[in-house]
Every structure is written in C-alpha cells, then in structure tokens.
Amino acid sequence: MKILNMNELPEGVEVNYLDKARTAYLGKAAGSEKMYVNIDKIEPGQKSCKYHSHARQEEFFLILQGTATLRYDGEEYQVKKGDFVAKPAGKQHAHQFINSGDVVLEILDVGLNVANDITYYPDEEVYYLPDEEKVFSEQGELKEWTSEPNE
To answer: Burial code of 113-144, b = ≥16 C-beta within 10 A, e = fewer?
Structure first.
C-alpha cells in the first residue's frame, strides 16, 4: 500500500504534453491495477484528447476546476466545476473536453484498464489497438499518426 499526496507527487507521475495539457497518473503511482485514476489539467483553448470512443473501456469524469465544452456523441455540452459524466463500457460513446474558459481546466478521469480495447477516432476515421500499439485506417496501418490533440 502507498499513501501519496497530490501536493508531493513523485518524479514521473505527472506528464506534460507540449505545455498545453498535463496528466497526473495517480492510480498508477499508488499501484492501482484494474482501474486508472488521473487528474488532467488542460490549458485555456486546448483539448483533453482527440475526439474518440472506446469499444470496451468504461470512464467517469468530474470537473474539478474551470469550464469546458464536452463533445459527446456528436453533440456539445457546456460543463463546469462540479459537473460529472459517466461513459459506460461497450457503448462506444465518442467524447472530448475542450477548455472553453480562461483558467486551467482540471478533470478527475477514472476508468477501467481493459484488455482488447479498440479506440476509434471518428474525426479522422482512425482505429487504435492499445494492446498491440497499432494504428490503422481503411487504407491500412499508419506509422506517422499521433493521438496528441494540441499539435
């Protein structure tokens, strides 16, 4: 068992993505195996991820700070501190948060680590197989594609 503190995270627990977003991998740092628990921090005007869905992964999101536009199944919703949403497993609900405010958006992001998940990116018609680290489209395997939303 590990007891850690949000204000004293060990080296390597938080990853910086192009100075536009950061993720603190709390569950991994604490030794969680079947679920992940992350805090995502998204700068104003930036995206949490590319718009995507999962075939098998269940997720839960809680807005800890800020405001955002939540893209969810082709619709857009305004969310703010205190709002939360679940994305059930097996429903393939596409989702993405875009920081629409002027402060850092903080999201508690909790989900299940599942084998054989398939991530689909409908804006690009791209599939990602995380277990195999392979990305492909109808044209075949893609070598240069990235999941980075804020390039």
So the answer is: ebeebebbbeeeebbbebeeeebeeeeeeeee
pTM over 0.90: yes
DSSP state letters, the chain: -----TTSPPTTSEEEETTTEEEEEHHHHHT-SSEEEEEEEE-TT-BSS-SBEESS--EEEEEEESEEEEEETTEEEEEETT-EEEE-TTS---EEEEE-SSS-EEEEEEEE--TT--EEETTTTEEEETTTTEEEETTEE-SS----TT-
Residue 145 to residue 121: CA distance in whole angstroms: 11
The pLDDT, as a whole number, for residue 29 is 94
Of 22, 147, 106, nearest to 13 by C-alpha is 22
pLDDT at 6: 87
- Residues in the chain, pLDDT under 50: none
